[in-house]
Design brief:
Layout (H helix, E strand, L loop, with lengths): L2 H12 L8 H4 L3 E22 L4 E5 L5 E5 L15 E16 L7 E10 L6 E18 L4 E5 L4 E5 L3 H4 L7 E15 L2
Antiparallel strand pairs: 1-2, 1-4, 2-3, 4-9, 5-6, 6-7, 6-9, 7-8
Organism: Thiocapsa marina 5811
Protein name: Copper-binding protein
Keywords: Signal
């Protein structure tokens, strides 16, 4: 899987109902890692505006640009951020794709979870991690053209497989699990 657009296309292709896998069945499931990717970005700036009611901050970056940041409801202590504080936000996005073989390999759907880990201290800091797991199944394998069709809850999407050796592991009905992780870490420092 190359890049974010293809990962998001897979996300939309697989999104739809909830997949439930029983804990007893999980013992008979084989998971084969296929691919993964991670991108990290960081923004740092001095707080210029704090709007607690609208849950928005405006910071001025070192290059003089202004950046408006929407603050999710899960983030606490927004009222403790003051004009002049230095704010650093690090965002990491990752995607992991696994092939699943076993009794529940044909599950199709999605699960989602948000976890907030607040750091203790004088100033607000912490990490918010969103995890979305999408379940699909292989609808077709075209070894000659290195193509795989993955059926999601709403549509079937064709993918080109870069490593032809992976095609030897694939069979119609096998499950595909794509896990998307978005982690945002924020830290406020007094200037």
């Amino acid at each position: 899987m190359n890049g974010k657009p293809r990962a998001m296309r897979l996300a939309f292709a697989l999104a739809g109902g909830i997949a439930a896998v029983s804990s007893t069945a999980m013992a008979d499931v084989t998971v084969i890692p296929v691919t993964g990717a991670e991108v990290t970005s960081e923004i740092t700036g001095i707080v210029e505006i704090v709007n607690v009611e609208r849950r928005m901050l405006t910071i001025k970056t070192p290059d003089g640009r202004f950046q408006v940041i929407n603050v999710p409801e899960q983030v606490g202590r927004l009222d403790e951020i003051k004009i002049g504080n230095k704010l650093t936000i690090t965002e990491t996005e990752a995607v992991l794709v696994d092939l699943v073989k076993g009794p529940d390999e044909a599950a199709v759907g999605t699960t989602q979870e948000t976890v907030v880990d607040r750091e203790r201290g004088r100033k607000p800091a912490g990490t918010m991690t969103d995890t979305m797991t999408l379940y699909g199944r292989i609808a077709a394998v075209d070894k000659a053209n290195r193509k795989v069709s993955v059926q999601g809850a709403q549509e079937t999407v064709d993918f080109t497989v870069n490593d032809p050796a992976l095609l030897e592991e694939l069979a119609v009905g096998d499950g595909v699990v794509a896990t998307f992780i978005r982690s945002v870490k924020g830290k406020v420092e007094v200037r």
